Each structure stands twice: as C-alpha cells, then as structure tokens.
Amino acid sequence: MEEPYDANCEDPHMPTATSGEASVHICAPPEAVYDLIADITRMGERSPECYRAEWLDGAGTADVGTRFRGHNRIGFIKWATTCNITAAERGHKFAFSVVDRHGREETRWLYAISPDRGGCTVTESYQFLWCPVAARIAELPFPRDRQLRRGIGQTLANLKATAEEQVSRDASSA
Q1: Under 8 Å CB-to-CB from 167, ≥6 apart: which residues?
Q2: Which helix (H) or strand (E) is 24 found in, with range?
Q3: How distant is the alpha carbon of residue 60 from its chain centre?
Q4: What's phi and psi for 84, nearest 5 deg?
Q5: 3-state per-residue secondary structure call for 30-68
Q6: In the chain, what are the domain boundaries?
Q7: Residue 9 φ/ψ, nearest 5 degrees
Q8: What is the mean pLDDT of residues 29-43?
Q9: DSSP 8-state secondary structure symbol assigned to residue 27
Q10: pLDDT in tens, 37-95
Q11: Can you name the CATH fold of 19-173?
Q12: pLDDT at 161 over 80
C-alpha cells in the first residue's frame, strides 16, 4: 500500500519542516567557497547533523547526476540518505536532492553563491517535498524545523570560518 502523498508535507498536526534558509557573507572568492561546499567528503566538518558523506557509483567530483550518501545523526538517532546532485555551477550554485529508495525526491538543498563586497554571500536553503508518514510521526517529539534552521546557521558559520581561514593561510604563504 502506497503512503499518502502531500507535495509540501503540510499537515497541521505534524511538525515536519517545509522550507528554510539563511545567508552569510564570506570574505573569500566565490570559487573557493564553492569548492568547499561541493567537496561532499568534507560535509561532516561543517554540518551539525551530517557527520560523513561519501561518493557513490565510483564518482569523485560534484557533477549534475552524481550521487552520494550522507550519514546523519541527532543525538543517538542515526540514519543515511542517498542524494542526487542537481546543480553544480562553480562559484555560483550547488544543489542536491535527498531521494528515497525509489528515487522520489524528499528534500531539496541549495547553496546559492553571490559575489559581493570583498567576497561572496552564501545562502543555504532547503525545501521538503515529500516525507513518509512514519517519519512525520517520529518527528513529533522533535521540533524538526527549528533543528534544521539552527543547523543551517551552524553549517554556514563553519563554512565561513573554514573559507576565511583558508584565504588567510593562502595569503600568508604567498
């Protein structure tokens, strides 16, 4: 039996997040910031939820259509997700979708990079598209939307620190 489909997961009785975003200014070139974001093997260094990611199908670079697996945890709860890269434009945009085992998109993630004064602004966003009823029920005791928004803030702060440290290190060795 197929689970009910709600394109936006908007059931007023279920706390599932629908979308969110945050931005940060980074004093680093957009291409350098993109390279950090698109290296999914380093995702665990920045994300408070995804502690490790690995390429699938022999891939090793971020190209549209490439797949990777993210390993996530919140407290003692752990799970893995399969993701498809949907945009890979160096210095501009990196996006991927979390998909279920049948290939159905569950969540879209986007990192939009805009050049600006002395560096760039990165906006990280997510949009829930579908989630199984069991996942919705499991989220009842957890404010998932708040967790994701806080996680985006932490991820962007860590990305900023890493990128700006790298620029500083490169400048001092030049």
Answers
A1: 27, 28, 29, 32
A2: strand 19-26
A3: 18
A4: -115, 130
A5: HHHHHHHHHCHHHHHHCCCCEEEEEECCCCCCCCCCCEE
A6: 19-173
A7: 55, 40
A8: 97
A9: S
A10: 999 999 999 999 999 999 999 999 999 999 999 999 988 889 999 999 999 999 999 99
A11: Alpha-D-Glucose-1,6-Bisphosphate; Chain A, domain 4 (3.30.530)
A12: yes
Residue recorded with tokens 């390993």 = 71
Q: Which residue has the tokens 């490169």?
A: 170
Q: Give Cα 88 to chain centroid, integer Å.
A: 13
Place of tokens 């752990």: 78
For residue 167, which of 124, 122, 120, 111 has the smallest C-alpha distance? 120
pLDDT at 17: 61
Q: Which candidate, 96, 47, 94, 46, places its Cα nearest to that of 72? A: 47
Which residue is it, tokens 């993210």? 70
Contact 128, 149 (CB under 8 A): no
